[in-house]
Specification:
The chain is an alpha+beta fold and 449 residues long. Helix content is 48%, strand content 12%. The strands form 4 sheets. A 5-stranded mixed beta sheet has the order 1-2-8-5-3. Strands 4-12-9 form a 3-stranded antiparallel beta sheet. A two-stranded antiparallel ribbon has the order 6-7. Helix 11 packs parallel to helix 15. The radius of gyration is 22 Å and the shape is globular. The structure holds protoporphyrin IX containing FE (HEM).
Length: 449
């Protein structure tokens, strides 16, 4: 391939560690700074060389060509430690289409009204336990909602309430140590430190709990009308060996639990944080939920009228995309933009970087849900990719939007959450971007509490 430029190296690399320090110290600032250096920029993270795609059109091209830009690279190598190679999010291109065909029916739009009922019931359950004046650990409360929703829609309650709490702790432990592990060189990741031990214990227990549920379901043979039944009964019209193997069901269940809980909890936590900082938007939201819900929990049929609520979720997904960085591995020599990428290269794409480009968004750091008002000029296509695009696009995108919208409406119809005086909210980077230590005081909006 002639006429191709080499990919420029981002400035300020240190010997041996490269750009590891800024990436660990202030990852969001670091990732955003890269677009000033070109459409593709090379970074060095200890032993890893990665090419970061800074341009929205090139990001789209890489995502759409998922045979050449296949799942892999440092993030997915770590993800595979827990979700295996056979899960929908981690499997390679060669096995992906069949798995996606088998799992897609579980997310058929016709199933959403039933899932929405579970979403509302779980949210009511959690917010109904809050007391006036209580200081809430918001991320934990939101994780409780999303874990309950996932357990209810995946297993229709096969995970008894007593077992939900240890699973929740294991999911949290897994996520807490994840970011540090991504760039940890072997054998450091196997040293018997308390962090490594807790991580391995959490992922082994999680797997054990889910495998037990799958085994029970395989034996009882009943259709429970939930996601797990949809997977176990999945039939591939293009392949007579039809159903999913135990390993595929198990990896996919763990994937759904991990992909669907922290992400949605993160967007809800950020939305509550941002609303408390923007009282005028909060007041308009209160007016909307009061008019639409009239005291009841939000239901699937309310969605078309929860317009502002949905725009708040979309804007939160833009400003603080839970999936902020992902890696790919290049499987054949290829060109991207004017550059040659040899087979074996590791590539990074970042919804966060794209969502914060000043050439794509006016005032990209401002929280402005009205930029999604269809009456206003809309940002260019591919400027918004919280759920990615192409064949590996999030399978749970509508599920997550429904869950987040219903939960935010139900929460804000009943409660107002305020920051504690002097509280600084910083991002914590796990696999998902979420607030670190967000404590807020809950005040009832009606006298019912
Ligand atoms: C706000 C919530 C969510 C966000 C921001 C989000 C984001 C994403 C993103 C960016 C990807 C692509 C990853 C990549 O390019 O490597 C993805 C894939 C995926 N997500 Fe989500 N997700 C969310 C919720 C969910 C939920 C609720 C589920 C399931 C119940 C789910 C299941 C998956 C799966 C299985 C994949 C892999 C799809 C495939 O490769 O075919 N996600 N998600």
């Amino acid at each position: 391939m002639t006429g191709l430029r080499s990919v420029p190296v981002a400035p300020k690399a240190l010997p041996l560690v490269g750009h590891l320090m800024p990436l660990m110290r202030n990852p969001l600032e670091f990732i955003n700074s890269l677009s000033a250096h070109g459409e593709l920029v090379r970074i060095q993270l200890g032993p890893f060389t990665l090419v970061v795609i800074c341009d929205p059109e090139l990001t789209r091209q890489a995502l759409v060509d998922d045979r050449v830009f296949d799942k892999g690279g440092p993030i997915f190598d770590r993800v595979r430690e827990v979700v295996g190679n056979d899960g929908l999010a981690s499997c390679p291109h060669r096995t992906h289409r069949r798995l996606r065909r088998l799992t897609q029916p579980a997310f058929h739009p016709a199933r959403l009204p039933d899932y929405a009922q579970a979403m509302s019931a779980c949210t009511e359950d959690v917010v109904g336990s809050w007391r006036a004046g209580q200081i809430l650990d918001v991320c934990t409360e939101m994780m409780t909602i999303t874990c309950k929703v996932t357990a209810a829609t995946l297993f229709s309650g096969a995970l008894p309430p007593g077992e939900l709490s240890p699973v929740l702790n294991d999911v949290k432990t897994f996520f807490d140590g994840f970011y540090q592990r991504i760039f940890m060189i072997s054998p450091l990741d196997r040293l018997p430190t308390s962090g490594n031990r807790a991580h391995v214990r959490a992922r082994t227990r999680l797997r054990g709990a889910f495998d037990q549920i799958i085994a029970q379901r395989r034996t009882d043979g009943v259709d429970h009308d939930d996601l797990l039944s949809a997977l176990i009964m999945a039939h591939d019209p293009e392949d007579d060996s039809h159903s999913m193997t135990d390993a595929e069901v198990s990896d996919t269940i763990v994937t759904f639990f991990l992909a669907g809980t922290e992400t949605t909890a993160a967007v809800l936590s950020w939305a509550l944080d941002l609303l408390a900082r923007h009282p005028r938007i909060e007041q308009r939201l209160h007016a909307e939920v009061d008019a639409v819900l009239d005291g009841a929990a939000a239901s699937h049929s309310d969605l078309p009228r929860l317009e502002l609520t949905q725009r708040i979720i979309t804007e939160t997904l833009r400003l603080r995309p839970p999936g902020w960085i992902f890696t790919r591995t290049v499987t054949a020599d290829t060109r991207l933009g004017g550059h040659l990428l040899p087979a074996g290269s590791s590539v990074v794409y970042s919804p966060y970087l794209i969502h914060h480009r000043p050439d794509l968004y006016d005032e990209p750091e401002a929280f402005d849900p009205d930029r999604w008002d269809p009456k206003r000029p809309q940002p260019p296509r591919h400027a918004l990719l919280p759920f990615a695009t192409g064949a590996r696009k999030c399978i749970g995108d509508t599920f997550a939007m429904t869950e987040a919208t219903l939960a935010l409406a139900t929460i804000t119809a009943r409660w107002r959450l305020e920051h504690l005086p002097g509280q600084q909210v910083r991002p914590a980077l796990g696999l998902a971007l979420r607030p670190r230590r967000l404590h807020m005081r809950a005040t009832p909006r009606t006298d019912a509490h």
